[in-house]
Amino acid sequence: MRRKMEDLNTERSQIISASLEARLKEVMHYQINIDNYSIALEMIEGMEPDEQAELAGFVEQLKGLLASSVLEQKKAKIMLAVIESQVK
To answer: CA 83: distance to chain centroid?
Structure first.
């Protein structure tokens, strides 16, 4: 019985470690998207007014994606903190 508990504890530790790595990557992926969307919006702001008008729909799409990524990253950071608290 004791051996089985040790095996379960080892397996739990491995699962939490894998979850921690996955959450770290998830936060990083959201940050990459946030950076990309922000840079794209800045680039479009620097364009000529007629080009900006032509890309208005794309700008709205980028703003939506940016807002969504920021929110999802916040959620991922919360879950990351939860997992980190279990590693200690």
So the answer is: 15
Q: What is the mean pLDDT of residues 10-14?
A: 91
Q: Which CATH number fits domain 2-87: 1.10.287, 2.60.40, 1.10.10, 3.30.1380?
A: 1.10.287
pLDDT tens-place string over residues 33-66: 999 999 999 999 999 999 999 999 999 999 999 9
Instruction: Please enumerate in sequence order all residues whose Cβ is within 8 A of that of 7, keeping only pairs 6 or more positions apart, or say none.
Output: none
What does the alpha-carbon distance between residue 59 and residue 63 come to, in Å, rounded to a whole number? Answer: 6
Q: Stretch 4-16: mean pLDDT, rounded?
A: 88
- Please, are residues 47 and 55 in contact by the beta-carbon 8 Å criterion? yes
Alpha-carbon distances, residue 40 vs 35, 49, 54 (angstroms): 9, 16, 15
